[in-house]
Design a protein that fits this description.
Structural class of chain B: alpha+beta
Order of helices and strands of chain A: EEHHHHHHHHHHHHH
Number of strands of chain B: 12
Largest sheet of chain A: 2 strands, antiparallel
Strand content of chain B: 25-35%
Radius of gyration of chain A: 22 Å
Bound molecules: copper (II) ion
Largest sheet of chain B: 7 strands, mixed
Strand order of the largest sheet of chain B: 2-3-6-12-11-8-9
Number of strands of chain A: 2
Helix content of chain A: 55-70%
Distance between the termini of chain A: 24 Å
Oligomer: heterodimer
Number of helices of chain B: 2
Strand content of chain A: under 5%
Order of helices and strands of chain B: HEHEEEEEEEEEEE
Structural class of chain A: mainly alpha
Number of helices of chain A: 13
């Protein structure tokens, strides 16, 4: 197949048609899932807000399962496939290797996600995103996830094949760019993670089919989190690559020290996959020494990596701004930053939300003794909505404002809405996540339809402060849903009817 | 720039003073955090238990039934008293049983302040979450594992056991009770 290239007039990068098409397909599909997950979020929020209590119980649990799959799996992984193709073929000025495999990735992931989603909607898989055995879903639920994961593995293979081809064909000399380096870290973690996914989901699928006996529930939990938590580390590595990318695109920042940033990515690869036992700190079946070794030593080397990026990403922006002449006082560089550029403001929300709200609470909650008061309360989703939504999702949203003109070659529609979008979404999510963690402090469980014990043998009450905090959480959540809607509106309108940029 | 090939070899790129200082701060923080857990475990009193035994769900179920028979509170007719449809048990200090199942915690426990108990926690079907409210202490109940929690109540009052691990459509109806006096 002949590779067809065009040259991007903004970055000077050579863009190949196959790579471009696959970035577009994966990005658009991810946004479709974001829309689905967002609508579900609205229904779930209005149910958890005890004063409204919208959905009936079975629908709540069903749609909560789908919300997890649509957001944490489909939206994020489809977008990551776009990031991988961009960071390999486009940043290295090369063609996408084995494009038919890349189409296989796309096809399998779409079919897999659809099978799982339909199975959930038919009421055959009310098991939550974690699907802990012995709670059993219909076998098609696991089958869909396996197809999706195989698709994702193909995508990672295409990424590595493209890197190899670029090196063999000498489309670049020296080291790959930092963003590609970060994507490599994400891809290596993805392979390790997806292997855990296969170890946990293939036997569970066979069990659901009645072919083999059930896995031990605690073994399942260990293996599941080897997959489930590590997938979040793919997100972290991909998100941080996006921070560096956005720094360059928005203010022209240059990494202050390539060695510093790249060493931090390497730490993720080495240590983050193993640090998944903080999900199991109050479980039987694992010794204290094992729990502490795993969550202490390994996790904090990954935390070290995050702290290094938390320094070097803002430092790169500061250096770039000072070079432009914004040198007055300590903070002129920050004041004169492009706050009206949604790519920039999204990045700032992402860095601050991930670091301060998500990261710090994660470290605290992952402490063995403190986990006793945290485990399975609303503190947990409060924490990961800060990391995955404010962190990863906002980084991806910020990238979208550049993908639209550079890859889709269309002018961003409704620039006024686009400018405001990160603020509405970001502030909404900050209020939502903070309030959710606060509510969790009262001991209110996650994943529960009713907290009053109305249908239970004994009534439960958490007090008026908790009720008020739930209302604050709802208001923050509603604001974030409006902000999410603004993002989807801008993205979909631009792709569908945005003015073509002729180049 | 982050999207272009680095000009010189990045490994030879020296670190700035600022970066070295930050690295030292970050590394110190990480080491302190790493040591905090074992330090706390050795010096403080509130730690998750690491005592557990593998047990068949049927065996645990039968052990809980025996426990209820032995220490159940009886009415005048000799039948075990119930609250909310659940047997009520007033055990002495020592080994006691809490059984999770879809969608019930049993038995209802009447405990004494200051007495030392060993709670045997497990499930006979799917996973459940043992969440004692309002003191907010949370542990996982896993079928096949007898998780032993050493507990000495220090305050009297009424406590709920809320299930906080999703266990099926009736999950929110799974509330048990502990009385301490
Ligand atoms: Cu339960």
């Amino acid at each position: 197949m002949e590779a067809v290239f065009r040259t991007c007039p903004v970055t000077g990068l050579k863009v190949e048609r196959n790579a471009e098409t696959l970035v577009m397909f994966n990005a658009v599909t991810s946004i479709v899932f974001l829309l689905v997950g967002g609508l579900l979020a609205l229904l779930l929020l209005l149910t958890r807000w005890q004063a409204v209590h919208l959905l009936p119980a079975d629908f709540f649990y069903r749609l909560l399962t789908l919300h997890g799959i649509a957001m944490l799996v489909a939206w994020i992984v489809f977008f990551e496939m776009a990031v991988l193709y961009f960071a390999s073929a486009i940043l290295l000025n090369t063609r996408l290797s084995v494009p038919y495999l890349a189409w296989g990735q796309y096809g399998l992931m779409v079919i897999g996600a659809a099978i799982t989603a339909v199975t959930i909607l038919l009421g055959k898989a009310d098991v939550m995103f974690t699907s802990y055995v012995p709670l059993q879903a219909h076998h098609m639920y696991y089958f869909g996830i396996i197809l999706f994961a195989v698709g994702a593995i193909l995508g990672v293979c295409v990424f590595f094949a493209t890197l190899g081809a670029a090196r063999a064909e000498k489309t670049y000399v020296g080291s790959v760019p930092l963003v590609t380096f970060g994507a490599i870290a994400a891809a290596i973690i993805a392979l390790l993670t997806l292997a855990h996914g296969a170890i946990v989901f293939i036997p569970t699928w066979l069990w659901a089919l009645g072919i083999i006996p059930m896995m031990d529930p605690e073994v399942y939990r260990v293996l599941f989190w080897g997959f489930g938590h590590s997938t979040q580390q793919i997100n972290v590595a991909a998100m941080i690559s996006c921070w560096y990318l956005l720094g360059t695109l928005t203010v022209g920042s240059v990494p202050v020290s390539e060695k510093f940033s790249r060493s931090a990515f390497t730490l993720y690869v080495l240590f983050i996959c193993i640090a998944s036992e903080h999900h199991l700190l109050v479980d039987p079946g694992i010794s204290t020494a094992h729990k502490e070794w795993n969550t202490g030593y390994f996790m904090h080397l990954a935390v070290l990596a995050s702290m290094m990026h938390a320094f070097s990403v803002p430092a790169a922006v500061e250096v770039a701004q000072r070079k432009k002449g914004y040198t007055k006082g300590l903070f002129e560089w920050l004041k004169r930053a492009p706050w009206g550029d949604p790519g920039f403001s999204s990045m700032v929300f992402s860095v601050v939300g991930f670091g301060f709200l998500g990261g710090i609470t994660g470290v605290i909650y992952g402490t063995e003794q403190l986990n006793i008061i945290v485990h399975n309360t609303l503190r947990v989703p409060g924490h990961f909505h800060a990391t995955v939504v404010i962190g990863t999702t906002m980084a991806f949203m910020g990238i979208t404002y550049y993908v639209l003109p550079l890859i889709f070659r269309r002018e961003v529609m409704f620039p006024g809405i686009a400018k405001l979008q990160p603020y509405v979404f970001g502030i909404g999510m900050f209020v939502f996540s903070t309030a959710m963690m606060f509510v969790g402090g009262f001991g209110i469980p996650r994943r529960i339809w009713d907290i009053t014990g109305a249908e239970a043998p004994f009534p439960v009450a958490y007090g008026p402060t908790a009720d008020l905090a739930l209302a604050v959480m709802a208001v923050g959540g509603l604001l974030a849903i409006v902000g999410g809607g603004m993002y989807i509106l801008v993205a979909v309108a631009t792709v569908a009817i945005g003015k073509k940029i002729n180049r | 720039m982050s999207i272009f090939i680095p000009e010189k070899h990045w490994w030879r790129d020296p670190l700035d003073k600022d970066e070295k200082v930050w690295l030292a701060i970050a590394l110190t923080t990480s080491i302190v955090l790493t040591l905090a857990m074992p330090w706390w475990h050795v010096t403080q009193k509130q730690n998750p238990s690491s005592e557990y035994y593998k047990i068949k769900p049927e065996t645990f179920d039968a052990a809980t039934d025996r426990f209820i028979q032995e220490f159940g509170e009886k009415d005048e007719s000799g039948a075990i008293k119930q609250e909310g449809g659940i047997d009520v048990v007033a055990p002495p200090a020592g080994d006691i049983f809490v059984r999770g199942q879809q969608f019930k915690w049993s038995p209802v426990l009447k405990l004494k302040k200051g007495a030392a108990y060993r709670i045997h926690l497990s499930s006979i079907d799917v996973l459940h979450g043992f969440s004692v409210q309002p003191i907010n202490m949370n542990f996982e109940a896993v079928p096949g594992y007898d998780y032993v929690l050493k507990v000495t109540p220090t305050t009297s009052g009424v406590f709920n056991i809320v299930c906080n691990e999703f266990c099926g459509i009736g999950h929110h109806t799974m509330v048990g009770r502990i009385y301490v006096d």
